[in-house]
Amino acid sequence: MRAELAELREAALADVAACRTEAELEAVRVRYLGKKGSLNAVLRGLGGLPADERPAMGALANDVKHAVEAKLDDAVAALKDVALSRVATDERIDVTMPGRQPPRGHVHPLRAVEDEIVRVFVGMGFRVAEGPEVEDDFHNFGALNFADDHPARDAHDTLFVGDQGMLLRTHTSPVQIRVMRSTPPPLRIIAPGTVYRRDDLDPTHSPVFQQVEGFMIDEHVTFADLKGVLVHFVRRLFGADTNLRFRASFFPFTEPSAEVDMTCTCRRGGKPADPGCRVCKGRGWLEILGAGMIHPNVLRAGGYDPAEVRGFAFGMGTDRIAQLRHQVTDLRLFYENDLRFLAQF
What we know:
Layout: H1 2-18, H2 22-33, H3 38-43, H4 54-90, H5 109-122, E1 127-128, E2 134-136, H6 137-140, E3 160-161, E4 166-168, H7 174-182, E5 187-196, E6 208-218, H8 223-238, E7 244-251, E8 254-263, E9 285-294, H9 296-301, E10 310-317, H10 318-326, H11 339-342
Parallel strand pairs: 1-5
Antiparallel strand pairs: 2-4, 3-4, 5-6, 6-10, 7-8, 8-9, 9-10
Helix pairs in contact: 1-2, 1-4, 2-4, 5-10
């Protein structure tokens, strides 16, 4: 048995030395030191030895076991050192290299168009005013001359909040009332902001969108002043060869009221409308905003006397202006946060 143990020791140490991976070392350990391993097979033969020889053979077997275990531990540690050295070499970080510059963001196209609209009107003497996005019925409807049974007051058109008559504003016109009730005329105000309506999200509608309200109030304001302001604005934004068309319309808060169209880019330079134009569909005109003279009832709700002051107001969708400016046909692209689209601006 002594010779058998010596032979087993040499064979185990040789097999350990030949291993190149931890998996191979584990296989050697199981083969020699496992429950069904070679060493245990030898130890089971101790019972057949004379009683006086058993202690010496048991001690020799333990020496063999410890020697193989020590060799296995050394081999595992050596493999880990090699792996660590390889990582340190292959995955070394050069701390002297400059860091990666994160991509720099930019203003969202809707916000950029809004800023440009505001700059044009500020250049004409308007100032910016803001108001809350959660409004009450008075500021959003009542003070703006909406009838009690107006469809906009129905839940299928407006997003109401709770049961106290509060709602998400459907336009930025409530800012007009708030400014009028806190500030004496003359006024030149531009009010950009986010508004909400119960609409499905499709290529031309969104339940959340951007709007700009503007108004001017003084003693002798006329419709001619409104036309002059809007013509200057549109030509600053879309080019000096852009013309406007005013079509009679109806809004509760203005009288008279008008829908305002501008010439499509296909008609610039006096050219006739292009029947194949993707933007205007061959019509030659693009609806851009609504406007009119402020209704006397709105002036009274704001605390003004219609016999002493007059004013005009207009409202436009920033999303609509951005679509026309960049010839984007699907409104949803502005809200999907797809960097492939936004990076173009």
